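Input:
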Amino acid sequence: MNATPIVTVKDLTRDYQQGTITVRALRGVDLDIATGEFTALMGPSGSGKTTLLNMIGGLDEPTSGTVIIDGQDLNSLDRGQRSDLRLHRIGFVFQSYNLIPVLSAVENAEFVLMLRGLPAAERRARAVETLAAVGLAGMENRRPSELSGGQQQRVAVARAIASKPALVLADEPTANLDSKSGHELIATMAKLNEELGLTFVFATHDPKVMNAARRVVWMEDGKVQRDERK
Amino acid sequence: MRLLNVALLGLFLTATSASAAETTAETAASDPSITELLDAADDVQRGDHSHATLEMQVKTAHYERTMKMETWAEGTDKTLIRITAPAKDAGVSTLMVGNNIWNYLPKVDRTMKVPAGMMGGSWMGSHFTNDDLVKESRMSEDFDGVITQKPAADGTGQWLIELTAKPDAPVVWGKVLLAINIDKLPTKIEYFDEKGTLVRTMLFTDIQDVQGRQVPMTMTLLPADKPDEFTRLTYLDIDFDTEIPSNIFSLQALKR
Amino acid sequence: MLLAMAWRNLQRHGRRTFITAAAMGISVAFVMAMLAYVDGMYRKMADVMINQTTGQLQVAHPDFATQRTMYDTVPDAAARLKTVAALPGVRGASARLYGFALLGGAEQTAGAQLVGVLPEQELELVPMRDRMVSGAWLAPDQTDQIVLGEGLAETLEVAVGDQVVAVTQAADGSLGNALYQVVGVLTSGSVTLDRTGAWLRLKDLQTLLVLPDQAHEITLLSDSLDSRAGDPIVSALVKTVRAALPTDEKHPLSVRPWWVVSPATASMLATSDASAWLILVILFLVAGLGILNTMLMSVFERTKELGVMKALGTRPAKIVQLVLWESLLLSGLACLGGLVLGGVLDWMLVNWGLALTTSSGDRLSTGGVLFDPRIFGVVRADRIVVTVLTLLCVAVVAALWPAFRAARLRPVVAMRDE
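Output:
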C-alpha cells in the first residue's frame, strides 16, 4: 500500500489519575497506519486499545508523545480544531447505542454531512446511497429503536463513511451484536475498504474482526506487543 | 381674656373707675401687685349691663368694609350682637352664651350654631376669630408675669408687663406684652406665639370718659404677618346704665 | 435538522414536556389576566384620580394648586371655558369653583367643601349620574339645588327634598348665606369628598362666594387614554391651551398637566405600573426555574448522546443551539397555550369584570380614593407582546446554563455515561 501514513503515532503515553493512583493506560506506543489499511487493535480489556483509538480520533489528549493525522499534529490543535478535524477527516463507529435516537436512519446517516454544511438535498441523496451500500435500502425512515442491533451499527457505519472520511475509527463495533450480525457488519466494512479504499482502524477483542483484518496490532499493558500483517 | 368682648363691652373700664383716676398718684406710689394690674385689665363688670353701638372697619388685601352693629351684654357670659349696616348683612345676629355661638341669618331665616371645628374661623370677615369672641382665659392664672417697667413717680410713662404662658395653660399665646397706662388702662397688647414670633397687636386709643369711666373708644387689631390689614372697632355710643331684658339672650330673641 | 431534533427531543418525554409547558402556559395566562386586571384597575384609578379629580390638564391661577385660597381664581371663566372647549383635542371641559362653607340641616351643622360645577359639562368628566345614591344630579336650569356626599348627608341628617343652609365668608368679607334644596346624594369616589363634598351649580356658588364669573379651575380632558406622567398627547394639549389663553400680570393663569397638579397621583400610578412588572418578574422567575430544571434533566439524560455528537465533530455552538431551540420550542408551545387560555381569561375580565371586596365588604380604597369594586380588565397589546417576549427571553436565559453544560461535555467522558 501507500507509503505515506494517514496516522502516525510516536511514543504515545497516557496516564489517568484514579484517586491517588496513576494508571498508565499507554506506555509509549509507536504506530503508523497507511491509507487504505484495515487494521484491528487487539488485546484484552485494559490493554489500552480504546485509549489509543480515542487518541487517534482526537477525543483524548496524550500525556506525552504525538499523534499525526493526515499530516496534522493533534497536539498543535485546540479543541475546536480537533472537533473540526474529526468532522472532516474521521468517521466514528462506537459500541452500539451510539445513534441519535430522535433521528431516523437516514437522518443519522446524514448527520455528519449536515454538520459539514452540505445542502439538504445533496446530503440526503448521499445518505440514502450510503445506507444502500451498507445494506439498509428501504429502511431509511426507521428510527434506531425500530432497528435491530446489527442494523443500528450499519447505520452507524453509514454515518461514519457517508462523509467519505480519510479514516474510520471503530471501537468494539461488534461487541453488542450476535454472531451473524457481527459477521455481516465486518463483511460490509471489509467490502467498503476494498471497494472505496477507506482506511479502517478497529479496537476490538472480537476474533471475527481479527480474522477479517489485514493487519492486527496486538496490545498489552499499554504497549504494542506484536504487529502482524497478512 | 375675652378679646373682642373686652373691646365690645369696654370692660377695661371696670378697674378704672372714676375714683381710680383720682387716686392715680397714690397708686403709682404704692406699686400695685402684678396680679392687681392683670385683673384690672382682665376683669369684667360683674353683672354690669351694657348696650352699645359700634362701627367695625375691616381692611384686608381683598376688601375693605365697614359694618355697624348694636350690642347688648350681661356680665362676661352673655352677649348679643346685631349687624345694622351694610344692608347686605343687616339683621345678621350673633348670640354668645358661655362658649357657644349662634348666628342668625335673616335672609334664610335660620339660626346656626358655630360648630367646634369652625371656632377658629373669622367672625364676620374680620381679623377676630369666633374663639376670640368667647374664649375665656385669665391672664393672672394662665401666665407668669414680670413687670419690666413702671411709670415714673411724676405719673409719666406706663407699666410694661411681660407675660409667659404657664406650661399647661390652655392658651394659644406663648408670650404677651402688655402696656398699661397710669390709669391702669391697657394701651397696647402684643401677642406672640410659642416660638416668640409676634402674631398680632392690639391698640387701645381714644380714651374718653363715659358715665364716669375711662373707656378706650377705639381698639385696633393689627395682624403681624399682614402689615396692610387691620380691624378697627370704634364705639359710636355706649351706655352702662341701661336695662336689658334677660330674655334677650335667647335663641328665640335672636330671631327678632 | 437541529430544529427537528429539538422538536423530537421534546416529544421524547411528552409528559414532562407537557407538564412544563402547561405550567409555563398557565403562568402566561395568569400573567395576562393579572396584567389585564392591574391595567383595568390602573385605568380606573387614573379615571378617578386624574380625569374625575384634576382632569388631564388644568387652567388655574398659578397659586391655586398650592395655596387654595379663594381669591386665586380664573376670571371671565365662562369666556375662557368657551375658548378652550373649542380647541382641537379637547374631549371634555368644565369649570369648577371651590369654597368652604358651614352647612346646616334642620338640627345638625357641618363644614363642607362646596364644588360649584356646570352640571352638564361636569358629566363629561365625571359620571355623576352613576354615583347617585338617591335623588338626581343637578339640573342645569334650576337654581339653588345641591347634591351632597353620602357621608355629609348622614352627618347633616338630611335627605333628598330637605333644605340646607350654607354659610360662608364671601370674597368681599360679607357673610354669604343661602338656602339650597337637596336634590341628590352621591358617593363621590373619594373618601374625603364623601364626608365633606357638596355640589351645586357654578353660578350659585359664585353668588354665595361673591366671585362673579370666576372659577378656580378649568378642567380639561384630552384624547389620551394614557395615565403616565409626561404623556405626549396631554403635553401637546397643554401647549395648545397655553397658546390659546394669553395671560397678563393682572390675571396670571397656569396651564398644567395632571402630573404637575398632583405629583402624588403620578407617583401612585407609577407604583401600580411597577406592581405589574413585579407580577411579571415573580411569575417568570417560576417559569425560568421550570425551564432550567427541565432542560438540565434533559441534558443529563442525554449525556451519552451528546458525547457522541461531540465526538462526531459537532461544534459546541451547535449543541448550545440545539438546547436553546428545545427551550424556545417548549416556551413557544407554552406561549401558544397560554395565549389561548389567557385570551379566555382576558375576555372574561373585559366583559364580566372581577369584583374584589375587602373582607369587611367595604369598597376598595387606595390612597383615600374609593373604587367601585368591580374592575374591568383592560387588554393591552404591548403588555401581551412584552409577556411573550419576556417568557421567550427567560426560556433562552434559563436554558443557557444547561446548554453550556452540554456544550462543554468531553466526548470520551460523556460516552462512558450510562
